[in-house]
Target: ABC-2 type transport system ATP-binding protein
Amino acid sequence: MNQTVAAPAAVPALSVRDLRKTYDGGAHKTGVEALKGVTLEVAPGDFFALLGPNGAGKSTLIGIVSSLVNLSSGSVSIFGVDLQRRRDEAMRLIGLVPQELNFNMFEKPIDILVNYAGFYGIPRAEALQRAEEELKRAQLWDKAEKMSRTLSGGMKRRLMIARAMMTRPRLLILDEPTAGVDIEIRRGMWKTLKDINAAGTTIILTTHYLEEAESLCRNLAIIDRGRIVEQGPMKALLAKLDVEGFLLDIDGGLPQALPAIPGATLVAADDHTLDLEMPRAMDLNRVFAALGEAGIRVRSMRTKSNRLEELFVRLTGENAQDGTAQPVPEQVA
Model:
């Protein structure tokens, strides 16, 4: 009799189990518990967002995974390699792009990449070939022989990513990679990251720009006060929201008084735009009928792009243990 043998499940790119971290408070002081039993999994090939307010535990979690911070208890494995038992092997699977620029500004990009590869035992000839590939992918090949301090802020960020890719990591961790760069440069970096992910590299992204996470990531986890408060597919989590938001472009000017629409919130974003929030179950025809009766003609409409922000604020607000408002990440202007 023929039996179907199930294919083995893929080994997670990152597996974190009941991870805890308490920082020593010093003599006569209680230690600070930064992580309180964090458990999460990132699938191979995923583009995963790790979000949370300032002080939520993101940096501690990333620090432990990248072996910069010692855990108090729990376990971490990278593609099945236990971080505690086989640290060197696990670290060879990871590329880390920290938030701070940490390369020598008086070195050339080509030298920064080749020397970095040398630390990992990559022969110089191979390192030079990889450096050319990565600088071209980062659109920095024409700057290869320039002093790094002369690069723009966006170029320096791309150089950090190129350096991390020199070891061909299977897991790339990015901690606020677009912090401090303008939206045009940020979107250019998004393309670079999408290309890296499409080529097979698993990416974990921490960011304060929620638009960035929604545009790039397929799955996410939200951490607050050292605990994971929500995780799962981006689309599924956003679908949990019972409110939808739209921006309505209006022909002509708006009347002094806007119509009252039971169950919906309607405010003027400017002289020619209405900001509408309504329950997902509400019929849009009711809204258009009320606007038409008020003499308001809608020329076009678009979905507001702050759905993830709404989910974020709800989750981190509801999980505040002392009832105080939680810090909210700065948004894209």
